[in-house]
Amino acid sequence: MQELIAGIHAHTTFSDGAGTHAELAQAAMKAGLDVLITTDHNVLVQGMDGYLQKGRRKMLLLAAEEIHDPTRQPGGNHMLMLGANRELAKFASDPQELIKQAKSANGLSFIAHPNDIALPHANEKAFPWTDWQISGFSGIELWNQLSEFKDRSSSRLKALFHVLFPNFYTLGPTPATLALWDQLLLSKPHPVVAIAGVDAHATKHHLGPFSRKVFPYEWHFKSLRTHLMTPKKLTGDLNADREMIWDALRKGHAFCAYDLPHPSNGFRFTCNTEDGLFWMGDTVSARSGLTFQARLPIRTHLRLIKDGKIIKEHHDREVLTHISKEPGIYRVEAYIDYHNRHRGWIFSNPIYATP
After folding, report:
1. Other beta carbons less than 10 A from residue 14's beta carbon
2. 232 CB-contact burial (10 Å; exposed 0-12 / middle 13-18 / buried 19+)
3. Of the candidates 71, 13, 178, 203, which has an alpha carbon nearest to the alpha carbon of residue 124?
4. What are 37-53's pLDDT values in tens digits?
5. Which end of the chain has the lower number of beta carbons within 10 A, N or C?
């Protein structure tokens, strides 16, 4: 399997972002992304998909959509619609119908910032997801960078500090969102894929004669990423590469990572059985035994989670191995020290072990 680094959930001038698609693509290229997925509000911008090439490096831009009902009070219930072949915003008022239409359009539906809170001192409203009767959605944004800023900025002074020094506020998915994901994994009859979303806008704010771009695109794209495991690198065939990206997300062949402290490239979480080798997102049979292995690019803090509970934990290790015959939902978390804090680094999608 190959590894592609994706930046997901970014806004352009077609909605409330400060940059054009071309400017975002340039920032993504500088940040080292292989794939950038833009998600403007309630508009699927057609004709933007394509490559940016620099020397031997190429970066694939894919335009998708963030859909919500603008008449809903209070606001919320935002869904990222990836890979749909038509505009679906007209179904925003009925989330279950939206998911149904997404499937018929070969699209993927990810619940955006599910536990988003308000930040009154920064004039930011809350946009959480509230309709949990739905089913059939592809997954959730386990880690949303803008939502985490709101969650960590409990005072005006903290918010200002995080705007000026953004590398200090990222600690990982909030405990509430991690608990929500584990609950969904155990309760839903279908896989729930986790992705990381930067929710980038790069808005410029003014204070008298001073102005500052809050969280520039390039900073977002260097920090919180979704790493995809794919059969091959980008080929240059737009249709084939696009479907390969959507397929990796559909299968959960991915992990979320905060790459500023140290690049997470090379992380692997697999399961070996008599039927072969399986990856994040795969379903395996536990009938003849399971050998799980998580491998990090450097030595640090590593956890193996089964059905929402820690079953094995190592400190200052690169490899974790676990042998079992127990069915369950297995996933990995890794933590790293950065700027004098112990921070979330890698959160894998699960391997589903059935009886």
Report:
1. 18
2. exposed
3. 203
4. 999 999 999 999 999 99
5. C
Residues 49/66, Cβ–Cβ less than 8 Å = no
DSSP 3-state of 51:
strand
Preceding amide of 216 cis, omega within 30: no
Q: What is the CA radius of gyration of the chain?
A: 20
- Percentage of the chain exceeding pLDDT 70: 98
Residue 213's pLDDT is 80
Q: Which residues contact 285 (CB under 8 A, 6 or more apart)?
A: 273, 275, 353, 354, 355
Angle between helices 145-152 and 156-164 (to 10 degrees): 140
Residue 151 CA to residue 115 CA, distance in Å, equals 9
Q: Are β-strands 35-41 and 2-10 bridged in parallel, bridged antiparallel, or unpaired?
A: parallel
DSSP-based three-state secondary structure for 339: coil
Evaluate whether 171 touches 343 at the Cβ level (below 8 Å): yes
Q: Which domains does the chain have, with CATH numbers?
A: 2-258 (3.20.20.140), 268-354 (2.60.40.10)
Residue 4: beta bridge partners? 228
Tokens, residue 338: 């950065």
Q: For the chain, which residues score pLDDT lower than 50?
A: 207
Query: Residue 194: beta bridge partners?
Result: 140
Query: Residue 279, Cα to own-chain centre: how many angstroms?
Result: 18
